[in-house]
């Protein structure tokens, strides 16, 4: 029997020869491409000593965080500190054959290509975890064929340099997970206010679903898409045998309780923290924000907060003694249509707070009481006791009569400032004066507390270190010393008359200015 006049043996032989030629041609092309690209590839050996960008943190003397500076939020964790469920969630979702391939996954590439061919669009990614690591460390995010080729070659090199656990640890600390969070440690804190070992399976699945599209699947932007993506991750974990059906059902039914969590600042010392930031930047430049510096200051919470309270209380007391300058703004006049609550709330949210002072809008007022809305949607009551100080300001030395009733001071529609005093609310105003305070340890010279002004948001000018004081009587010892050097004594008599010298060039007497 023949096939087109040729024996089956010869046909198979031709097919084998063709296959070998194709393989050799393909291998040669890949080798040639590699030799062409090799000079352009970065040195992956740097991963052995890589230093991830970690923000600078400023601490008090007793180890409490008071400030953090840096564009990226990252909390480095070792692989041992990451729960196995978290690791498995990423592997099941991003690279199910992670432990089987050597940087690139031909099976995954073929599967993704098949899906793209039959569906008409690329719905599955083919990048392995190692390829993603290569892209995050060495390449740009641009979507080009050349970038993908470089990514594949770099992934193979990385697999030759690092073991699987080292690759995973770098990846889980480097990957961007939205909201300026880099790595699973930061993501756990940003979204759930927890450490990675405190996360539930559902929360781990939420985080593991973010690398594909950190904004699209972000629970702070779109809860519906975040839930759908979490369920995909859980489904992948179930199909790969990482969790049981019972675990899947429980995690899938759990609501996602995600909120933005800022860095856990123990207490605020903004003027001192800014001094530290400036000093570190002057010494180390931009690397000050990236190299994970931890700076321990000499202040303590108790003394610093007492200093801040002293400055604010005394500035407010001084300002109140000089009278009330009136409302910050009038949103509507008495008799006009009042604003609705949403418009009031939106207006207040756009206004800053200054220390203990909160913006408020008077929504009702009678002789005994006024009601004021706050930015959080709540309302507070103001009584005569909290505004008896509000004599009308006339000048720095004069004030008007003491008010007798609430409506002598505030009216409906006014935007005012309020502050809480014990359990009551008082009328307030943003002070026009300012102050500063520095407390030093007399034995060591260490700064125990530093306050540069009433409120850092109101003014970042540090009056403790940047203000230039008038010389005043401090000049007297220098004048007296110079006089003694000239032979004068404490008993010397001087003629206390104005000094006058004829200036021929000017054609007039010269007298020193006073």
Write the SSE topology.
Layout: H1 8-37, E1 56-59, E2 65-69, H2 84-94, H3 106-119, H4 129-138, H5 145-161, H6 164-174, H7 184-192, H8 201-208, H9 223-239, H10 245-253, H11 270-284, E3 294-296, H12 301-321, E4 329-330, H13 341-349, E5 358-365, E6 369-373, E7 379-383, E8 414-421, E9 424-428, E10 437-440, E11 447-451, H14 476-485, E12 501-503, E13 508-510
Parallel strand pairs: 1-3
Antiparallel strand pairs: 1-2, 4-8, 5-6, 5-8, 6-7, 8-9, 10-11, 12-13
Helix pairs in contact: 2-8, 2-9, 4-5, 4-6, 8-9, 9-10
Summarize the structure.
This protein has helices at 8-37, 84-94, 106-119, 129-138, 145-161, 164-174, 184-192, 201-208, 223-239, 245-253, 270-284, 301-321, 341-349, 476-485, and strands at 56-59, 65-69, 294-296, 329-330, 358-365, 369-373, 379-383, 414-421, 424-428, 437-440, 447-451, 501-503, 508-510.
Q: How would you spell out the order of helices and strands?
A: HEEHHHHHHHHHHEHEHEEEEEEEHEE
Tell me the helix content: 25-40%
Helical element count? 14
Describe the largest sheet.
6 strands, antiparallel
Structural class: alpha+beta
CATH homology superfamily name of the domain at 74-253: Biosynthetic peptidoglycan transglycosylase-like
**Main CATH class of the domain at 74-253:** Mainly Alpha
Describe this protein's structure.
The protein has 514 residues and is α+β, with helices and mostly antiparallel strands. Among the domains are: 8-40; 74-253, Biosynthetic peptidoglycan transglycosylase-like (Penicillin binding protein transpeptidase fold, Orthogonal Bundle), CATH 1.10.3810; 325-428, OB fold (Dihydrolipoamide Acetyltransferase, E2P), CATH 2.40.50.140; 472-510, no CATH class. It has helices at residues 8-37, 84-94, 106-119, 129-138, 145-161, 164-174, 184-192, 201-208, 223-239, 245-253, 270-284, 301-321, 341-349, 476-485, and strands spanning 56-59, 65-69, 294-296, 329-330, 358-365, 369-373, 379-383, 414-421, 424-428, 437-440, 447-451, 501-503, 508-510. The strands form 4 sheets. Strands 4, 5, 6, 7, 8 and 9 form a 6-stranded antiparallel beta sheet that branches. The longest helix has 30 residues, at 8-37. The N and C termini lie far apart (126 Å).
């Amino acid at each position: 029997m023949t096939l087109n006049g040729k024996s089956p043996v010869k046909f198979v032989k031709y097919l084998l020869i063709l296959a070998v030629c194709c393989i050799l041609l393909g291998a040669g092309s890949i080798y040639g491409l590699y030799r062409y690209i090799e000079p352009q590839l970065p040195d992956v050996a740097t991963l052995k000593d890589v230093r991830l960008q970690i923000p600078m943190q400023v601490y008090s003397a007793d180890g409490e965080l008071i400030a953090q500076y840096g564009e990226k939020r990252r909390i480095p964790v070792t692989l041992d500190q990451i729960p196995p469920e978290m690791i498995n969630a990423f592997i099941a979702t991003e690279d199910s054959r992670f432990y089987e391939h050597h940087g690139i996954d031909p099976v995954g590439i073929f599967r993704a290509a098949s899906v793209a061919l039959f569906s008409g669009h690329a719905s599955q990614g083919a990048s392995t975890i190692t390829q993603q690591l290569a892209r995050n460390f060495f390449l740009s995010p641009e979507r080009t064929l050349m970038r993908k080729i470089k990514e594949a070659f770099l992934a193979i090199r990385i697999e030759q340099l690092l073991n699987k656990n080292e690759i995973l640890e770098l990846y889980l600390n480097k990957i961007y997970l939205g909201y300026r969070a880099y790595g699973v440690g930061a993501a756990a804190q940003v979204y759930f206010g927890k450490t990675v070992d405190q996360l539930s399976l559902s929360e781990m699945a939420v985080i593991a679903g973010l690398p594909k599209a950190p904004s699209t699947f972000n629970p702070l932007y779109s809860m519906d898409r975040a839930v759908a993506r979490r369920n995909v991750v859980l489904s992948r974990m179930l199909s790969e045998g990482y969790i049981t059906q019972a675990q899947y059902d429980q995690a899938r039914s759990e609501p996602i309780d995600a909120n933005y969590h800022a860095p856990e600042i123990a207490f605020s010392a903004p003027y001192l923290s800014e001094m530290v930031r400036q000093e570190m930047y002057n010494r180390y430049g931009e690397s000050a924000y990236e190299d994970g510096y931890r700076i321990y200051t000499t202040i303590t919470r108790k003394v610093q907060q007492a200093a801040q309270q002293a400055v604010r209380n005394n500035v407010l007391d001084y300002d109140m003694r000089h009278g009330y300058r009136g409302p910050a703004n009038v949103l509507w006049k008495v008799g006009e249509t009042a604003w609705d609550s949403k418009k009031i709330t939106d207006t207040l949210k756009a206004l800053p707070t200054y220390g203990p002072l909160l913006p408020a809008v008077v929504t009702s007022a009678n002789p005994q009481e006024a009601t004021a809305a706050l930015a959080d949607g709540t309302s507070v009551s103001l009584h005569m006791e909290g505004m008896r100080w509000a004599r009308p300001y006339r000048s720095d030395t004069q004030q008007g009569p003491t008010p007798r009733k609430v409506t002598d001071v505030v009216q409906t529609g006014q935007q005012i400032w309020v502050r809480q005093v014990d359990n009551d609310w008082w009328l307030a105003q943003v002070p026009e004066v300012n102050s500063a305070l520095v407390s030093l340890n007399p034995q060591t010279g260490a700064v125990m507390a530093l306050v540069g002004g009433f409120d850092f948001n109101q003014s970042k000018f540090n009056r403790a270190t940047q203000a230039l004081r008038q010389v005043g009587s401090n000049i007297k010892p220098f004048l007296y010393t110079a006089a003694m050097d000239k032979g004068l004594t404490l008993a010397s008599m001087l003629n206390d008359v104005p000094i006058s010298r004829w200036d021929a060039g000017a054609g007039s007497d010269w007298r020193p200015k006073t």
